[in-house]
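User: Fold this; C-alpha cells only.

Assistant: Input:
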Amino acid sequence: MRKTRQARLWMAWGLLPLLFLILSGCRRHDATPTRSAYYWSTTWETDSALVSFLQSNDVGKIYLRFFDVVVDDNGEVMPNATLRFADPMPDSVEVVPTVFIVNGCMKKDVGKLDQLLMKRILQMCETHDVMGVKEIQIDCDWSPSTRKTYFEMLSRLRDSLHAKGLRLSATIRLHQLGEAPPPVDHGVLMMYNTGEVGNKDKNPILDLDDCAPYLPNLSKYDLPLSTAYPVFSWELLFRRDHFVGIMHGDDLPVIEGDTIITREATLETIQKAKAAIQRIKPSANDEVILFDISKDNIKRIKQYHYEKIYNR
C-alpha cells in the first residue's frame, strides 16, 4: 500500500515539469508579440518620422532589404538595387539583412550564389557598421520547378551561416504552406499580396477569401513562423478595364478614360487575418512584422493603427 502511494506521488511530481511547460506555453501566446518591421526602400534614412515610429512602437527588429538578385540582360545572375545608407543604423534595433531573389535566378547556375550572398551581406554590414547581426533572411517566390535548386542553395547557405554563429530565415507565401518547408531555421509567413493584382473586383493586397484555401495547411507546417502583415497601399492603373500596372510616381502615363484604383488592407481585415492565424497557429503571432515602414506608409497610417496591429 505504501509503495503504491509513493509511486503515485513520484508520478505526480514527474508530471509537474510537463504541466509547467503547458502553462508557460499558454502564457507566452497571450503575451505582447515581438514588434518588428520590414524596410524595403532603396535608401536608409533615419528621419524624424521613422525615429518616432521606432521609439513609440518599441520596434526591436528591422528586416532591412540589402539588395535584390536578378537575371541581367546577358542572362547572368547579378545583385541589383543595392541599399544606400544615408544614415547610420540605430543601436536600439536588431537588423536582419534581407535579400530578395527573383525566382528566375533559380533556373541559372547558382552553385556559388550562397557564398556570394554571404560575402556581400557581411561586407555591407562591416562597411556600414551594421552591428549585432544574428540572422540573414532570403525572400524568393520559388515554384515547384525551382524548389530543388532553391532549397539546395539555402541548405548550403544555412550551413555556412551556422559555422559563423548566424541563423537563416526565409519568407513563406501562403501557397507554399502546402509544400515541404525550406531548410532554414525560421520562416516569415507573408499575409499580403494574396490575390491577382489585375482583378478589379478584389483587393490583391489582403483578401481573406483568397487566404482561406491555404490556411488549413498552417497547423501542420513544420517550421517555426512569424507573420508579416501589410501596411502599404497600391495605386493600380486600369485602361478599358484592363490592368496596366502598379503606379510608382509618374512612371505610367495616364490618358483620358483611365481608372486609378487605390488598394490597401483595412485595419479590420488585418485584425481578422491575425485572428485566423491565432486560431490555427498562435505561435506564428509571437512576432508581428509590418510590411513595410517606408516614409509614405508611416505618414499614411495613424499611430493607433500600428498599435492595434502590433497588440495581441
